[in-house]
Amino acid sequence: MNTCSLAPLGKAPAMALGLFRVCLVVVTAIINHPLLFPRENATVPENEEEIIRKMQAHQEKLQLEQLRLEEEVARLAAEKEALEPVAEEGQQQNESRVAWDLWSTLCMILFLVIEVWRQDHQDGPSPECLGGDEDELPGLQGAPLRGLTLPNKATLDHFYERCIRGATADAARTREFVEGFVDDLLEALRSLCNRDTDMEVEDFIGVDSMYENWQVDKPLLCNLFVPFMPPEPFHFHPELWCSSRSVPLDRQGYGQIKVVRADEDTRGCICGKTKLGEDMLCLLHGKNNLLQPGREVKDPLCARDSPYLDTMQVMKWFQMALTRAWHRIAHKYEFDLAFGQLETPGSLKIKFRSGKFMPFNLIPVIQCDDSDLYFVSYLAREPSGGTPASSTDWLLSFAVYERHFLRMTSKALPEGACHLSCLQIASFLLSKQSRLTGPSGLGNYHLKTALLHLLLARRAADWKAGQLDARLQELLCFVEKSLLEKKLHHFFIGNRKVPEAMGLPEAVGRAEPLNLFRPFVLQRRLYRKTVDSFYEMLKNAPALINEYSVHIPSDHASLPQKAVIL
Predict the structure, then answer these.
(1) How far apart are CA 433 and CA 533, in angstroms?
(2) 335 exposure class (CB count in 10 Å sphere: 0-12, 13-18, 19+)
(3) Is 121 exposed, middle or buried (0-12, 13-18, 19+ CB in 10 A)?
(4) Pairing outcome for strands 254-261 and 394-397
């Protein structure tokens, strides 16, 4: 009886400890697997065959270890069965085996702890700004701006007065000339349009740097929004991306515009929400006028078999309308008008007989309800860095709100505030660097977005004229941090700190923040080029500022008086 009772008692603990050892080895193998805990600073080898070979060798080692453990467990089970007839000897052997297994288990746990600690600390903690991404560039950690220093305040002031202020002295006269010509051009366009069948063009709206007083690049460029409305009985119904719960990330910031007939719009009437009886009839929408689900749509400038407005159709219509309008008034002017760039259909260029030219952009837009948001068919460079998924996607522009915010903020800042001077200097440096190394993923819109965030975070007293060097340093540090984190939030979308006086639509304020640097997450080559170009710009900044402070190149000379008067 005693022999039969002691054998199972000795077998159970040994078997349990053996299985526990197997589990520990498996966990250790998983912890050591390079795909589960990769080194944060490791780079991806270029030879994929070497990776596969190492993974196969590692897998063979794990299989051999598993076979060895299985044989050991089988041997232990056989030994327990052989020891069952001799209870006293079996008990002593089991006690020694338990002691040995406990010692092995402690060693395995100690090895596991040491291995986890080694993988966490052998390479040192990663910099907070890098965020642990596997494709971060080496050497980005350290002091802000890589320890590069900008010129002092006296040098910056001298550079601003000699180069930037003088280069933008003609901005007011350029705006006045372009606005007068565009007024005449749009008036001719309206006179040629049929009000019953053609789109109705409204007055233009000036936006961007020329109307926010921070334009630096030559030639001076005016961007003008041209709102338009459909002919009766049609009207537009904008649909924001944030109104739908399932919107792809690459379509955030876009929307669609549905063209609806007045007699088909029942969303604001109770007849579209309530089932009327047979003896009841809506006086606004007759029974025969309701939109049928399978009905073919034949609305103006819409995509094929779709009720949504097509950007390509709109641009073709706009180009043809502008061409006919110019032919009507061309005899009054002593210059030629031509389309500028093929990739920007609304880009126009005035060509003077002297060889000078004056570019400007006319962008057809659609107002979003009664707000200052506008859907634009294209931009010279879209702020989000992406491209629309289809021709029915329209980019939502906050250009008018940005102009209002800068104007409202400037009233609260001290006289001669340096906020626009900081933006002009940063834009100047970026422009010169782009000419040296080519365009990158960083644009003027990103610089302006960074400035808007700082204006909202800083006190008004911090933007005194004497703080130009400190605020410029802070602006560039903000851009650097955003680049390293690959995150720069849109100033208005999802920003609950924007003053209510701006009058933003509630749907925009409640939306999720939009990351303008999201393309860098997917486009590693573009990200590397952008970061390298940014630090190269900082490195060249002192020499560039000193050179332009002494000598002003010809491309920054003012436009001739003749070019403005014509």
Answers:
(1) 7
(2) middle
(3) exposed
(4) antiparallel
Contacts of 305 (CB under 8 A, 6+ apart): 296, 297
In whole angstroms, give the CA distance from residue 67 to residue 61: 10
Which of the four pLDDT bands, split at 50, 70 and 90, describes residue 209?
Answer: very high
Which alpha helices (DSSP H) does 83-220 contain, by range? 87-121, 153-159, 165-167, 171-192, 209-212
Q: How far is 505 from 488, CA to CA, in rounded Å? A: 22
- In this structure, what are the phi and psi dihedrals at residue 192, rounded to the nearest 5 degrees? -95, -10
**Mean pLDDT across the stretch 6-23?**
56
SS3 of 443-476: the string is CHHHHHHHHHHHHHHCCHHHHCHHHHHHHHHHHH
Cβ neighbours of residue 34 under 8 Å, at least 6 residues apart? none
Peptide bond just before 219 cis, omega within 30 deg:
yes
Read off the amino acid at residue 559. L
Between CA 113 and CA 205 the distance in angstroms is 66
Closest CA to 227 of 407, 369, 406, 343: 369
CB 492 within 8 A of CB 504: yes
Task: Give pLDDT, residue 166.
Answer: 75
For the chain, what percentages of helix, strand and coil (3-state, to nearest 5) are there?
Answer: 55, 10, 35
Residue owning tokens 């642990």: 132
Per-residue pLDDT, 162: 86
Tokens representing 452 are: 């808007």
Q: Are 94 and 10 in contact, with CB atoms under 8 Å apart? A: yes
What's the confidence (pLDDT) of residue 163? Answer: 85
Distances (CA, A) of 345 to 198, 339, 342, 426, 496: 19, 7, 6, 29, 35
Cα 180 to the center of its chain, rounded Å: 36
Contact 230, 202 (CB under 8 A): no
Give pLDDT, residue 104: 67
Q: At what angle do helices 399-412 and 419-437 cross, to 10 degrees?
A: 140
Distance CA 6, CA 87 (A): 6
Kind and range of the H or E run holding 362: strand 357-367
Alpha helices in 45-86 (DSSP H): 48-82
Inter-residue contact 301 to 199 (CB < 8 Å): yes
Q: Are 258 and 236 in contact (CB under 8 A)?
A: yes
Contacts of 361 (CB under 8 A, 6+ apart): 221, 222, 223, 224, 344, 346, 347, 348, 380
